[in-house]
Amino acid sequence: MAKAVSACILLSLFITTPVQAAKVLILGDSLGASYGMSEQVGWVALLQKNLPEHEFTNGSVSGETTAGGLRRLPALLDSVSPDLVVVELGGNDGLRGFPPTQLKNNLIQIITLAKNSGAKVLLTEIMVPPNYGPRYTQKFTQVYQEIAKDEEIALIPFFMQDIAPHPELMQRDGIHPNEKAQEKIATWMQPWIEKALTQ
């Protein structure tokens, strides 16, 4: 009888224990900043709705490069004190033809700053259009793979891979996802974030 009571008490504690709230910082560019639409319908806002037990801060800025993200990060870390930083940067570096070595150096510094603050880090893979040439595009993509391996962090596959080929999910500029695509991006990102927060 005593064992049964103890089991019931333990089960009750397990059920009623709330999920530990975490602060998540999204450090991104226009893909994270909901370019061309209200931020309230963007994938970061949708993640906040899907995971209300956590607090999401969207630190994304349209046109942002890795250098710009690196400059802004210390202030964001101080104000947000995140448990997890999701880095979604590099697209504008690629569009401007910046050297992959510069991209890599900036991303490593961003990751180091985030880790030193006590936060976990997730890195989102970024790809550039093939018209930049196979040599550049290959080196650009390799940067993310190398960093994820060297820094021992998870690399989220580029979410635009399954969106960009579908015109109905893209804005007229052919670069940015539209409002219809935001739920797909949130669905893509959510399991990675949930896994990072439970490890």
From TrEMBL:
Residues 27-183 form the SGNH hydrolase-type esterase domain. This is Arylesterase. Pfam families: Lipase_GDSL_2. InterPro entries: Ester_Hydrolysis_Enzymes (IPR051532), SGNH_hydro (IPR013830), SGNH_hydro_sf (IPR036514). The keyword Signal applies. SUPFAM superfamilies: SGNH hydrolase (SSF52266). Residues 1-21 form the signal peptide. It comes from Shewanella mangrovisoli. It comes from the Bacteria. Keywords: Signal.
